[in-house]
Amino acid sequence: MSGSWIETDTEADDFLTRHPTATLCMRKVRGGWVAAIEGTSERPMPHGPMPLAALRMTLATRYLAEIHGKTARVNLAWAREMPNWAGDLGALPEIAAAILRSEQTVATA
After folding, report:
1. Where are any strands of DSSP class E within 1-109?
2. Chain centre distance of CA 67
3. Is 26 part of a structural domain of the chain?
4. CA distances for 80 relative to 8, 25, 27, 56, 93, angstroms
5. Domains in the chain, number
6. For 12-65, how does the pLDDT look when each residue is reduced to its tens digit (9 = 90+)?
7. Residue 10 burial (C-beta neighbours within 10 Å; 0-12, 13-18, 19+)
């Protein structure tokens, strides 16, 4: 893996064996709501804060997330298959980078 970004099918397959799902928690911040990797402040999406309904819709369309209240569960294999992303790894590189950053933060804390 180049830094913390998945670039190949082999890297994606390896990541998915260790991380089949991700949980994102929605939090209110100044200006609206954001989603972060559960237990961290690491945000996978480049978007700024938005209304809660818009955040839920964005998570559902961006990652095919299952939304439950203020939690979103992402099946990472589904995120990999998202056809509206450039490249053949879908949304997986973006969310995987946030997961890896969150793990690194927890490991150094």
Report:
1. 21-29, 32-37, 66-68, 71-75
2. 13
3. yes
4. 12, 20, 25, 19, 8
5. 1
6. 999 999 999 999 999 999 999 999 999 999 999 999 999 999 999 999 999 999
7. exposed
- Structure confidence at residue 68 (pLDDT): 96
- The tokens 């979103």 sit on which residue? 72
What pTM, to 2 d.p., does this model score? 0.89
**Which structural domain range is residue 71 located in?**
9-108
Report if residue 1 sits inside a domain: no
Identity of the amino acid at 37: I
pLDDT at 11 over 50: yes
Q: CA-CA-CA-CA torsion for 101, 97, 12, 6, nearest 10 degrees?
A: -110
